[in-house]
């Protein structure tokens, strides 16, 4: 196994991780922005107010995108396992 192959596998793993995390982070970011605008408009400065909507948004995103996320990581793992004979041989 050459260093280039190791770097390529690491790059693919980081790409998959970012692809899987992006929808969750985006949902939390958008929800936080909406709650912050609401807090600024109503002058309610409660820190715990942002937690529950973010939690619900991330959970809803996991329900909606969960199938895609599982398929993505399963495909990557399957390709990685299938490439083991070529990597060690």
Outline the structure in words.
Belongs to the FliQ/MopD/SpaQ family. By secondary structure, the protein is mainly α. The chain has one domain (20-88). Helix content is 87%, strand content 0%. The chain has 3 helices and no strands. The relative contact order is 0.12. The mean pLDDT is 93.
Mean pLDDT: 93
Give the number of DSSP strands: 0
- Alpha-carbon distance between the termini? 8 Å
Tell me the domain tally.
Answer: 1
The quaternary state of the protein chains shown equals single chain
> Which structural class is indicated by helix and strand composition?
mainly alpha
Taken as a percent bin, the fraction of beta residues is under 5%
Largest sheet descriptor: none
Task: Give the overall shape, derived from the CA principal axes.
Answer: elongated
Helix-strand string: HHH
Task: Calculate Rg over CA atoms.
Answer: 19 Å
Topology:
Blueprint: H1 3-42, H2 51-82, H3 84-88
Helix pairs in contact: 1-2
Descriptive tags:
single chain, 89 residues, mainly alpha, 0% strand, elongated, FliQ
Care to give the gist of this entry?
The protein has 89 residues and is mostly helical. It has three helices and no strands. Helix 1 runs antiparallel to helix 2.
């Amino acid at each position: 196994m050459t260093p280039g192959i190791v770097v390529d596998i690491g790059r693919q793993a980081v790409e998959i991780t970012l692809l899987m995390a992006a929808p969750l982070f985006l949902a939390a970011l958008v929800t936080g922005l909406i709650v912050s605008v609401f807090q600024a408009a109503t002058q309610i400065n409660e820190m715990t107010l942002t937690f529950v909507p973010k939690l619900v948004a991330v959970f809803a995103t996991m329900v909606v995108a969960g199938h895609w996320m599982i398929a993505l990581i399963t495909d990557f793992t399957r390709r990685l396992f299938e490439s083991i004979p070529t990597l060690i041989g």
